[in-house]
Every structure is written in C-alpha cells, then in structure tokens.
Amino acid sequence: MNDTTSKKLNKRKLFFWILSILCMITIFYFSSQDSDESTQESHKIGRAIGHIVKKDFDSWTFEEQEEFAAKIDFPVRKAAHFLEYATLGTLLALAWFDELRKKRGNILVPFAVGAAYSVTDELHQLIVSGRAGQIRDVLIDSSGVFTGVLITTVIISCVKKISK
Question: In the 3-class helix/strand/coil scheme, how is 56-106 assigned residue by residue?
Fold first, then answer.
C-alpha cells in the first residue's frame, strides 16, 4: 500500500468514526428524552404511518388518530431501536473495515463496540424520568448492530470481488 492510498484509507476511517460518534450522540439524545417526550415522538411517527396505510386517516378525529398511534407504538419503538443500531453497525463496520484483516475481525469488533454501546444506552435510560433500561432492547439493538455490520461486510466483499 503506497502512502497516498494509506492517507485516503485513514481519512475514510476517520470520516466514518466521526459519523459513528455522531450516531451515538443522536441515540443518546433520544434516550435522554423523558417518557412523555419519547411517546410524543413515536406517536408522530405512528400518525405518519396512519396517513400512509389508512385511506381515510385524515377524516379521523385527533383522538382516533392518537388511539391508532398508541396501538402501533410498541412496534414503532422497537423498529426505531433496530434501525438506529443497524445504522450504527453500518458506520462502525465502515470505520473499522480493513481488507488486510480477517473477516471475523471486521465483523466482531464493530459488533462488540455497538453491542457495548447498546448496554450503556439502556443503563443510561435507568436514570431518565419514566424510562426503563430493558434487556429486550439490548437484544433488539444488538441484532440491529449485527445486521448493519453483516450487510456492510457482505456488500464490501461483493464489491471487492466484482472489481477484481
């Protein structure tokens, strides 16, 4: 590897480490919301989903729309957990990936970092008003990280094979 290639690699890694940290800060911000704020945010998403999947949603009363949003609140929240951590897993994989490393190292280290962050995030929620850290969320978050890392690693491997 020549010096120019090495500098590009280091810039790429730095860029994705910065994005990974920004993603962690965003997750921390959402986890810092008390239960009322968090519920309002997930209900906004629930109402947006209602507009997409229910033709007459606009004609419903606000209370009916809120009831719909409350009904789908659990899957909305869990999908958000999974997706934000899948994003983190992707960013960590891109920050850590090195073609000179064995595939296992390119998968295990970013997964371990993301899963560890998930644990700290749930511990953080124990001190936020109305929130609770849950093992189930750690499992959802960690599966999101693993999915992001795995998909990213597979795509990188495919691109490398195609380009050769």
Answer: CHHHCCHHHHHHHHHHCHHHHHHHHHHHHHHHHHHHHHHHHCCCCCCHHHH
The model's pLDDT over 77-91, given as tens digits with 9 standing for 90+, comes to 999 999 999 999 999
Contact 153, 95 (CB under 8 A): no
Buried b (16+ CB within 10 A) or exposed e, 32-55: ebeeeebbeebbebbbebbeeeee
Question: What is the phi/psi pair of residue 127, to 5°?
Answer: -105, 5
Contact 156, 113 (CB under 8 A): no
| pTM of the predicted model as reported, rounded to 2 decimal places | 0.88
Nearest to 110 by CA among 17, 8, 9: 17
CA nearest to 23, candidates 93, 105, 109, 106? 93
Q: How far apart are the first and last CA of the chain?
A: 17
Amino acid 164 reads: K
Under 8 Å between Cβ of 88 and 27: yes
* Per-residue tokens: 7: 């500098």
* Cβ pair 97, 153 in contact under 8 A: yes
